[in-house]
Amino acid sequence: MRSVDHSDRNNWYAVRVRSQHEDQVSRHLRVRGLEAFLPLYTRKQRWSDRFKEIDFPLFPGYVFCRFDPDNRLPVLTVPGVVQLVGTGKTPVPIDAAEIEAIQTAVTSGAMRHPCEYLEIGQRVRIEHGPLCGVEGILLGSRGHRRLVLSISLLQRSVEVQVHEDWVRPLAMKHGVAGNLVASHHCSPHAHPKFVS
Predict the structure, then answer these.
(1) What is the residue range of 29's domain?
(2) What sign does the CA torsion over 3, 5, 6, 11 have?
(3) Of 7, 71, 111, 178, which sits most exposed with the smallest number of CB within 10 A?
(4) Residue 8 phi/psi, 5° resolution?
């Protein structure tokens, strides 16, 4: 794990919270002037007489927050906060690209839901559509393609549905994903080219 970079106060950190307190903690953090991120997904829930769509956290038990690691008391004193994720009492920042990928998936409106954490698989980059520029692991089943976005520190992942033609593999170097093979600029409004 990485140590905290005290020179960069813009790092995202994972805040472990009590069960079903994610929304409350997120609101409290914002009231205290901190930037909080609670990624959600919608699921149909059956009630006794009907189905209702309800928002659930993509990462149950966690809220993401930007704060100064030297001044973490405002975070730790929020009702419902259990601890900061890190080594010992030192919070470990989350990779900025991982948080940006989850934020892009949430704002894109693409269908998403939690899934098992994956470390292996084909790393890809989305080159078209609302997720343009996002990198992740490609999965496929029953004619559907899904992109897995992960937060390594939490060992949690999220699946997002993507169109098969939007996806391009990343070059492989020594069995590990390397730099992009595609070099063209992608626009969030770009549409895939369909070839028959």
Answers:
(1) 12-91
(2) negative
(3) 7
(4) -110, 105
- The answer to whether position 68 is within a domain reads yes
Nearest to 11 by CA among 100, 89, 83, 80: 100
Residue 148 belongs to some domain of the structure:
yes
Total domain count, the chain: 2
CA quadruple 111, 148, 138, 143: dihedral positive or negative?
A: negative
Nearest Cα to 138, choosing from 146, 150, 130, 129?
146
CA dihedral 23, 25, 27, 33 (to 10 degrees): -150
Instruction: For residue 133, give the 3-state DSSP assignment.
Output: coil
Distance CA 82, CA 18 (A): 6
Does residue 103 share a domain with residue 84? no
β-bridge mates for residue 17, sequence order: 81
Record the tokens describing residue 94, joined without a space: 């989350």
End-to-end CA distance of the chain, in Å? 47
SS3 69: helix
Tens digit of pLDDT per residue, the chain (196 long)? 444 444 456 899 999 999 999 999 999 999 999 999 999 999 888 888 889 999 999 999 999 999 999 999 999 999 999 999 999 889 999 999 999 999 998 998 888 888 766 444 677 888 888 888 888 887 765 556 778 888 888 888 888 888 766 777 776 443 333 332 223 344 444 433 322 2
